[in-house]
């Protein structure tokens, strides 16, 4: 067992100053700090906001090494540690006073390529146009969707873009995921589902894009746009997870109250 801790940070001056403060504290407690991804590390520590956290997860290819974040961003829903609590966190980590929670990952297949997402998958137009989609769940045809798009969100991603589009908040301990329409068109000619749908962890969603919308429809994985000639996507809960340290069992509800309400 090593004592190496990887630190990831964004480029802000504030995060840089917090990095040096954190590095000094960690070294005082006997840890070794790596600014590059060390596969033998015992922890990934992310300094920044939720975007920095997501980037670190993707940059490490969804590593099995646990994550925790120090919040120097705005919302910081993934970031449990505040700047004035860094030494308390380091002491708790050294003493083993924490729990490890496994977070759901969505696995998508597009054009025989696998794409993983921690927050969500979005299917929408990149030209601000309506998209027409055929939606299947577990091989069963569900709807001909027309509207701005669809969001397929994990429980921890449910409080991000999903929530802003009227999606349900799913507790992060849940193993399922949600399907949320973005501005659906509902009429006698088009019977689209207009409310979010919560799915079990063993469900699979298949989405086919209509030929007339191929040229402007994109798939977006945790904010990263992906263009393809294959306009079908299959989404399911992955067998993989990422691990996140939890210092306070009430952190989730504190986040909900202080950052979303």
Give an overview of the whole structure.
With 261 residues, the chain is of the alpha+beta class. It folds into 2 domains: 4-97, Rossmann fold (3-Layer(aba) Sandwich); 105-240, Tumour Suppressor Smad4. 19% of the residues lie in helices and 40% in strands. The protein is built from 5 helices and 15 strands. It has helices spanning 13-28, 50-59, 86-95, 161-164, 251-260; strands at 4-9, 32-34, 43-48, 67-71, 99-110, 113-117, 120-125, 131-137, 140-153, 177-184, 197-199, 204-209, 217-221, 224-226, 232-246. Strands 5, 6, 7, 8, 9, 10, 11, 12, 13, 14 and 15 form an 11-stranded antiparallel β-sheet that branches. A hairpin with a 2-residue loop joins strand 13 (217-221) and strand 14. The chain is elongated and about 65 Å long.
Oligomer: single chain
- CATH-assigned homologous superfamily of the largest domain: Probable inorganic polyphosphate/atp-NAD kinase, domain 2
Strand content: 35-45%
Helix content: 10-25%
Mean pLDDT: 93
* Count of DSSP-assigned helices: 5
What's the gyration radius in Å? 20 Å
Unreliable spans: none
How many DSSP-defined strands? 15
List the helices and strands and how they pair.
Layout: E1 4-9, H1 13-28, E2 32-34, E3 43-48, H2 50-59, E4 67-71, H3 86-95, E5 99-110, E6 113-117, E7 120-125, E8 131-137, E9 140-153, H4 161-164, E10 177-184, E11 197-199, E12 204-209, E13 217-221, E14 224-226, E15 232-246, H5 251-260
Parallel strand pairs: 1-2, 1-3, 3-4
Antiparallel strand pairs: 5-6, 5-15, 7-9, 7-13, 8-9, 8-12, 9-10, 10-11, 12-15, 13-14
């Amino acid at each position: 067992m090593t004592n190496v801790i990887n630190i990831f940070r964004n480029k802000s001056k504030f995060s840089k100053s917090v990095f040096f403060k954190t590095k000094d504290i960690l070294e005082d407690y006997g840890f070794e700090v790596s600014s590059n991804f060390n596969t033998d590390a015992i922890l990934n520590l992310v300094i920044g906001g939720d975007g920095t956290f997501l980037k670190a997860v993707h940059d490490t290819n969804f590593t099995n090494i646990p994550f925790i974040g120090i919040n120097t961003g705005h919302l910081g829903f993934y970031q449990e540690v505040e700047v004035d609590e860094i030494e308390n966190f380091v002491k708790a980590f050294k003493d083993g006073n924490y729990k490890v929670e496994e977070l759901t990952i969505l696995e998508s297949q597009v054009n025989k390529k696998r794409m993983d997402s921690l927050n969500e998958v979005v299917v929408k137009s990149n030209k601000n146009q309506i998209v027409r989609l055929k939606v299947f769940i577990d091989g069963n045809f569900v709807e001909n969707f027309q509207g701005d798009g669809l969001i397929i969100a994990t429980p921890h991603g449910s409080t991000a873009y999903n929530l802003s589009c009227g999606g349900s908040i799913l507790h992060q301990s849940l193993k399922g995921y949600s399907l949320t329409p973005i501005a659906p068109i509902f009429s006698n000619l088009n019977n689209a589902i207009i409310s979010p749908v919560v799915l079990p962890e063993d469900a699979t969603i298949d989405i086919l894009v209509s030929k007339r919308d191929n040229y402007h429809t994109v798939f977006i994985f945790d904010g990263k746009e992906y263009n393809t000639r294959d306009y079908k996507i299959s989404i399911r809960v992955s067998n993989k997870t990422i691990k996140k340290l939890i210092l306070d069992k009430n952190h989730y509800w504190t986040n909900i109250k202080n950052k979303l309400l």
